[in-house]
Specification:
Blueprint lengths: L12 H19 L4 H4 L10 H15 L20 H13 L4 H20 L3 H5 L1 E4 L2 E4 H23 L11 H12 L1 H8 L7 E7 L4 E8 L1 E5 L9 E6 H8 L13 E4 L1 H9 L6
Parallel strand pairs: 3-6
Antiparallel strand pairs: 1-2, 3-4, 4-5, 6-7
Helix pairs in contact: 1-5, 1-7, 1-8, 3-4, 3-5, 3-7, 7-8
């Protein structure tokens, strides 16, 4: 049994699964009918084309069904874009499926996500809220599935960037992007405190614009924490940018050319700029 050192995150099962299933449906529609050259278009992720991105999703969902990663034909840990054990597992699936047609990889995606839908829908509340190991450390299985929603949605945006079919405002008005942004927001204390090392007393306001508009606040009082408000105090540093662009930076991706790329800093502009430089928290 995994024993977390912090309270488990309790999330509504129907809400999270609604978002996860929605992004799988969106990916299915995006990939349906792609030509073989489209499947080989380079993605924003080093070393991966569109097919590799989908192979990665297939591999992760297969792992969650208890299916072991295939044996690689080379030492994938020596590849320049593989940085950790998770990357090794990802690359095993990417190389294993690289020789398959795009249509074949899409069929695998449909098969594995279909099995996962049934397994997830059948989870009891106790199983949903149980402690497990997640990419963000020990937490609830529900939190893990919100991370899966974030990961799949980010990869949908990677594929859209590769194919030059960016998300419309309507595409961004749904449960999956909102849950993905919720997951990113939960990490901002870590980003501001641990990665950017904002000094004690800092109050950082993220103002996101566009279809993913929201405000996020991080206060540093001994440790950095996401807060609902600053208790009437003004922020000491403000970062304002398009919400989709914020997700791209948080995921270590290039900004989308289809949306406003301006980033505005207020208050302590040096600190604000330093935080943006440290936004990438994805392992």
């Amino acid at each position: 049994m995994t024993k977390p050192g912090r309270p488990l995150t309790e999330l509504d099962k129907s809400e999270v699964l609604g978002g996860l299933f929605a992004v799988w449906d969106s990916l299915d529609a995006l990939l349906d009918g792609l030509s073989e050259p489209d499947w080989r278009v380079t993605s924003p992720l080093p070393g991966w084309d569109v097919k590799a991105v989908v192979a990665h999703i297939v591999g992760t969902e297969s792992f969650l069904l208890g299916i072991a990663a295939p044996e690689p034909d080379v030492d994938v840990s020596a590849l320049g874009h593989v940085r950790n054990p998770i990357g090794v597992m990802n690359e095993c699936w990417v190389r294993h499926l690289s020789a398959e047609s795009g249509a074949g990889v899409l069929a695998r995606f449909r098969e594995v996500t279909g099995r996962r839908r049934k397994a997830l829908a059948g989870l009891s509340d106790d199983e949903w809220n149980a402690a497990t190991t997640t990419p963000s450390g020990p937490d609830s299985y529900g939190r893990f599935m919100r991370i899966r929603t974030f990961d799949c949605w980010m990869h949908e945006q990677d594929i859209r960037a590769a194919l030059q079919r960016p998300s419309s405002d309507g595409d961004l008005d749904g449960p999956a992007p909102r849950l993905a942004l919720d997951e990113i927001a939960a990490t901002m204390g870590f980003v501001v405190g641990k990665l950017a090392k904002a000094p004690d007393g800092s109050r950082v306001l993220f103002e996101l614009t566009g279809p993913l508009a929201r405000s996020m606040r991080v206060a540093v009082d001994g440790r950095a924490q996401v807060v609902d408000d600053f208790g009437g105090a003004e922020p000491t540093a403000t970062i304002r940018l398009d919400g989709l662009q914020f997700t791209r930076l948080a995921g270590g991706r290039p900004m989308s050319p289809a949306r406003d790329q301006d980033v505005e800093f207020g208050g302590d502009k040096d600190l604000a700029a330093h935080i943006v430089e440290r936004l990438n928290f994805v392992i």
